[in-house]
Each structure stands twice: as C-alpha cells, then as structure tokens.
Amino acid sequence: MNSLQKAKEPFRFYTQLHIPELTGLKATNLQELLDLMRTVPGSVIYHHTHHFLQQHQYLSPEPPNDFAYWITGILSEEELGELLYSIDTIQYTTIRELRDEIVRTIENYISRHPRSLLKFATPGEEFHFVKAVSFVFQTPYTAADLKEFQAVLQRVTIDSIYFHMFEARLRIGRGTNDFSHWLESGLSENRLANKIASLDPYTHTMENLRITLIKLIEKRIVESFEKRSGTGLIILPKP
Fold first, then answer.
1. Angstrom distance (rounded) from CA 23 to CA 16
2. Half-sphere CA count of 156, side-chain side, radius 13 A
3. 138 FRET partner, CA 20 to 30 A, in 29, 84, 114, 203?
C-alpha cells in the first residue's frame, strides 16, 4: 500500500489562553463608543466580538458581539443593534477590517438618526472596554501527513482548534486559517484546504467544528487510498 504524502515541514499544533484586562476606558453614548472604537487596540475589538465563543463553546449559532448587545439592551437602539448583529464576521480576514465595518455601520446610523446621540447610559451601565491578553503555547503534537493530522485533531483541546481556526486567521493576518494554509503549502491539498477555508466556524460549536474537520480529512484519506490502489475497493488506513 502506498503511503500518504509527507510534508517537508510538519504542522505544529499550538493552543492559547486569553485573560481579559480592563482598559479603564468607557462610553456612555454612541459618540463616545464610536470615538473610542476608532482608537483602541485590535485586542479590544477582538475581545468584544469573540470572547463569547470561548466562554460558551458549546453554543451555536454565532453569538452576538458586545457592542450590539450594549447598544440594544442599554441604549435601546434596536435597529442599530440588528445591523451590528447582521455583520458576517467570517467575511473579514483581519481585525482592522472588522473594526472598520462596525465603525462604518455606527457612523451611517448616527448620520440617519442624529437624535440617537442624545441617549446616555445610566451610571453603572456604561460600556467598559476590555482587551484580550493572549498567551500562545506550543503543544507536543505535530503532523506530517493527513493520517497524522486527523489523529491529532481527535486529541488536541478545543482551545487549540480555536486558535488555529479563529485566532491565527484574524490576528496574525494570514487571510486564512492555519489548517488550510498548511494543507495547501505543505501537502498541495488545495481542494481540501479550500473546503476547510469555506467553512463558517461561527455557526459551529467547537466540538462540532472538530468533528466536521475530521470528517473532511477522513474523506480525503479514503479518496487518496482508493486512487492509489487503482481499484474500487475502499482501503482505510489503520488507526
């Protein structure tokens, strides 16, 4: 039986830990929120649009971001809240792009509804800006081919999957997730890389995302061994 193609550089699995940290910045109305959103570090925008995923990893579909939640619940600007809820996060490959879209949405709303600036949060209900302080750690796991990659995906924590599917894509600025990048550049598995890149991870729980990735890779392994065997017989690699 022919073996699977080996990558020159194995995929190294990392994991991450986020610690929220108060910035000391707060907003009482839309103008203050908008002004601060333009200047706060990207780690702040990331926290307020992604921390729900990490705290409630078994819930789906996509949870609301903090900006929409505060604008709807505290300022009672339901229309703007809905506009922010509807922003499709998966369409943006950097935090800067995501920030710009949120800022643009709020700016356009204010221009159409200037009286919205007259609404202020009561004391104790201000929007407090929090940043995500991230710590990245290398795990002991590596993979050099599809079989090893699938096996490791079954063992790593969901924090590791989160890092490679969400964090690396948005905060490193690679434009795609780590898995797709390695599959394409390391194994020339362009079609599989594109299938994983086309997934909307925000509509999955972390465990469901793990299962989906494993199934896609398993299907590709089966296809590869069928092709190499030259028969119609499905030859599965040993676990």
1. 21
2. 31
3. 203
Q: What are phi and psi of 46, to 5 degrees?
A: -60, -45
Which residue, chain included where needed, has tokens 């409630």? 56
CB-facing half-sphere around the CA of 114: CA atoms within 13 A = 1
Where do we find the tokens 């594109």?
194
CA distance 204 to 213: 11
Q: Each residue of 54-109: pLDDT tens digit?
A: 655 555 444 568 999 999 999 999 999 999 999 988 888 889 999 999 999 999 99
Asked if 88 contacts 203 with a C-beta cutoff of 8 angstroms, the reply is no
Q: What is the pTM for the complete model shown?
A: 0.80
Q: Which of 154, 147, 145, 166 is nearest to 210 (CA)?
A: 154
Under 8 Å CB-to-CB from 119, ≥6 apart: which residues? Answer: 29, 30, 75, 76, 77
As given in the structure block, the two tokens for residue 56 are 């409630």
